[in-house]
Amino acid sequence: MNSKAGRLKKTPLYIWIFRAILTVMGITYVFPLIYSFVTSFKTMNEFYGNIWGLPQNLLFGNYADAWVAGRIGEYFINSVIISVTTIFFIELFAIMASYALSRLHIPFVEGIIMFFFVIQMLPSETMISPVYLMMAKLQIMRIPYLPIILGNLGWSLPGTIIIMKNYFDTVPRDLLEAARIDGAGEVTSMFHIVLPLMKGALATCIIFNFTAVWGEMMWAKTATMTVDKGIPLTVGLLNFKGSYGTNWPLLCAAIIIITIPLYLLFLFLQKYFVASLTAGGVKG
Amino acid sequence: MRTQSPAYVRKLRIIGFFFLLPAGIMILFTTVIPFVWNIYLSFGKWNGVGAYKFIGIDNYTKIFHTRQAVLAIKNSVIVAVVATLVSMALGLLMALLIYRISRIESAICRFIFYGPVMLPMTVVGLLFTFILASDVGLLNSFLRAVGLGSLAKSWLATDVLVVVSIGAVQGWRSAGSIMMLTYTAIIALPEDLFEESKLEGATYWQEIRMIIFPLVRQTIVLSFSMMSMWSFKTYDIVVAMTDGGPGDLSLTAPLYILRETFQNSKFGFAAAVSVVFALIIMIIIAAIRRGLRGESYEF
Q1: If DSSP states are collapsed to H, E and C, what string results for B24-68?
Q2: Residues A221, B254: contact at Cβ < 8 Å?
Q3: Is the pLDDT of residue A5 over 50?
Q4: Confidence check on the interface: ipTM exceeds 0.90, yes or no
Q5: What is the pLDDT of residues B162-182, one digit of tens each?
Q6: Which of the two residues, A187 and A99, has the higher pLDDT score?
Q7: Contact by Cβ (8 Å): A94, A229
Q8: Is the N-terminal amide bond of B22 cis, ω within 30° of 0?
Q9: A86 vs chain B: nearest CA distance in angstroms?
């Protein structure tokens, strides 16, 4: 731990007990993934022969099968297109809206935030069928990706705006005043002065939103009910399970393909993430 | 200062309005209009194509006489309660433990425990169907291997146990968020708060009780209510694990609502179930926030 005053050189016993408990808990968290990683290299016979055994040789056959024949590759690209587009627009719209709420003298700000807080509590089951009907009427339903993007965009905005507004509130007003006196426009001051200070908040929101959009299934499944194009990973994975049933090694390969990008993203953004949570952005 | 002149404020307000517009339109289109429309649907009978017929509150009274609807709501509540309790217990424990180990160890632990939070529920669900399967499942194989075969159960095929298992899996998955929120709140506490307790030789448990818990109370309450909110989102995990089965033992509200809407074309009835479900969620969360509200300390 950081500079705890008067820390003894010798590690007290209870720290070792903590470590032991954490190790046991850690195993339950890591083991399922390591196990599927190992299983993903096995053949069906090897798997049903001995579920604890190691694979005979490191074959990437399951990955190739999952990627091409199981269409995981196609689903993966769909998910990337959907997530990246959605995240871009969520952050853009949320930054604009929260900047306005925090700094541009919008009336009834408290009321608006309260309203956002309440509507983000509503379960999506209370909206899905009307959204479906609306989009079907507007002929959006047949366009690949668009229905999923629009739905996720709208549902993620209230929560993101609340978090970001809290951050904008912490940016000193003087900084903006100075920029305004220098003749900077609102757009310029937003993107050049405030945004660089918000890296942490942005990283936090990106992690939250990306996790939500990448993993969203209810709306994605509803929106792709009648089409065969633009199906994202979550829905695709179920189709995959439907057609491969109990071929666990193949299923494990698919699970690993989905898992790795998420862990990489988090590894990359963890620094900002912890720092910004500490800064108190996510307080009630 | 010229920046506070009424004309200037008005100008900023107009710009602000345009900044709010894109988000506002999206929220209106995906949340506000659909929600109001849903309430309208809930008072009528409509199969998706024919004419809408207003029937008042008949859909609502029908819910209480429909076995599956009641079962689905009950199952959702069980899953949510189990998931919330498991994740709060695990998450708080993790946060308190990693606070006392070295910086690098705690970073590794955070990474490991937060990992599953990012995984899609579908993936977590599939992973655990595999672990909890009664024949080749890892848990049962493990129990048999260590001689506890009598504890092996069909986790996902027994009444009540199946929803408890699903809740536990969801709690396991979400504990990382609770840990993150609590941990970051603890490390934000000023160091000198602990000085005196150090001098007096207080144990860690005393520090937790006297300093940490009172001061991070707000964060704990917030994560508790956020967690209960998330725990009602049971669609993905149930579809991935049991699809409501076997039979309808693990049918949850979202699953039932979507089925009634899109497979059975009972738009009105399904809408009524969703409104009741939303109300139950709101009441539970409001009760939690009220019940746990207490004095909060500033530092």
Answers
A1: HHHHHHHHHHHHHHHHHHHCEECCCCCCCEECCCHHHHHHCCCHH
A2: no
A3: no
A4: no
A5: 999 999 999 999 999 899 888
A6: A99
A7: no
A8: no
A9: 12
Determine phi and psi for B44, rounding to 5 degrees: -140, 180
pLDDT (average), residues A146-175: 87
Closest CA to A57 of A42, A67, A47: A42
Are B122 and A217 a contacting pair at CB < 8 A? yes
Structural domains in chain B plus CATH codes: 58-292 (1.10.3720.10)
**Domain boundary assignment for chain A:** 68-278
Lowest-confidence pick of A4-13, A108-117, A270-279: A4-13
Sign of the four-CA dihedral A66, A68, A70, A71: positive
Q: Quick: pLDDT tens for A106-148.
A: 888 899 999 998 888 888 889 999 999 999 889 888 888 999 9
In sequence order, which ranges of A120-247 are alpha helices (DSSP H)? 128-137, 146-170, 173-181, 186-189, 195-197, 199-215, 218-223, 233-244
Q: Does residue B135 carry a pLDDT above 80?
A: no
Q: Does B69 touch chain A (CB under 8 A)?
A: no
> A57 to chain B nearest CA, in Å?
22
The rounded Cα A125 to chain-centroid distance in angstroms is: 20
Residue A130: list chain B partners with CB under 8 A.
33-35, 37-38, 41
B287 Cβ under 8 Å from any chain A Cβ: no
Q: Per-residue confidence at A210, pLDDT binned at 50, 70, 90?
A: confident
The B residues from 233 to 272 touching A (CB cutoff 8 Å) are: 233, 235-236, 239-240, 253-254, 257-258, 261-262, 267, 270-271
CATH topology of domain A68-278: MetI-like fold (1.10.3720)
User: HSE on the CB side for B67, CA within 13 Å?
Assistant: 2
